[in-house]
Amino acid sequence: MFRRLYDWTLRWAGSPHAEKAMGVVSVVESSVFPIPADVLFIPMCLARPEKAMRYALIATITSVIGGVIGWMIGHYAFDLLARPMLDFYGKMAAFEEVKAQTGDGMILLLLVTSGFSHLPPMKVVTILSGLVSFDLKWFILSAILARGGRFYLLAWLLRRYGVAMAEFVERRFAWVAGAIVVLCLAAWAVLRFWT
Q1: Which of the 8 DSSP states describes residue 121?
Q2: Which positions ≥6 away from 72 have C-beta within 8 Å?
Q3: What does the alpha-carbon distance between residue 183 and residue 36 come to, in Å, rounded to a whole number?
Q4: What phi and psi values does residue 57 have, to the nearest 5 degrees?
Q5: Phi, psi torsion values for 103, nearest 5 degrees
Q6: Enclosing domain of residue 24
Q7: Percent helix, strand, coil in the chain (nearest 5)?
Q8: Residue pLDDT, tens place only, 134-172
Q9: What gap in Å lies between CA 81 and CA 119, rounded to an integer?
Q10: pLDDT at 40
Q11: 37 and 66 in contact (C-beta within 8 Å)?
Q12: What is the largest distance, in Å, between two alpha-carbon atoms of the chain?
């Protein structure tokens, strides 16, 4: 099922409506959809490097909108919408594990790591943020910084290094994402120790 969704999403990258499709995928990926916007974003940036920063802006704005929708689902409709969705994707255990460790500092850390590396999945963090009533202003600001940072950095790298960069990221994405998560956790531990 996920492979068909992935292939379907990827076909949109070559469409004349690719920007709209990427925007829609970015919105729903942050709250309900299992396929990240990267499957459209990366091929679009490679095909039209001069538009990479425009694509990053679109992906950032729509991803933040999707995050706010996820926050609202968690805050206003967890039992009605979020619980069945998390059960469907098999993410309820991950959600409960993350929920057990929540506090404002942890939510911020999760928003940053999820925004940059999808670990844990963005939809889990956005719904959790709403469920625990994490301050919406801080949520939006951190989502802009994390998601915008990811999309703009990726756009810059794809413009500068093109196909070689895409191949490197695709082959070693788990390692790159893991390194970012480790750095964020180390920074969080240092800040927590000093405060």
Answers
A1: -
A2: 130
A3: 22
A4: -65, -45
A5: -170, 170
A6: 2-194
A7: 85, 0, 15
A8: 899 999 998 898 889 889 998 998 888 877 766 776 676
A9: 22
A10: 82
A11: no
A12: 52
Is residue 36 within 8 A of residue 29, CB to CB? The reply is yes
What dihedral do alpha carbons 192, 121, 123, 96 form, nearest 10°? -70
Residue 173: count other Cβ atoms within 10 Å of its Cβ.
13
DSSP 101: T
Could you tell me the CA-to-CA distances from 156 to 23, 117, 148, 192 in Å, in that order?
Answer: 19, 17, 12, 32
Cα 54 from Cα 63, distance rounded (Å) = 14
Q: State the pLDDT at residue 31.
A: 74
Contact 95, 126 (CB under 8 A): no
More confident residue, 14 or 61: 61
What's the total number of domains in the chain? 1
From CA 21, how far away is CA 112, in angstroms rounded?
25
Nearest to 47 by CA among 10, 83, 78, 80: 10
* Amino acid at the residue 40: L
Q: Report helix, strand or coil for 82.
A: helix
Give the integer Cα–Cα distance in Å for 193 and 195: 6
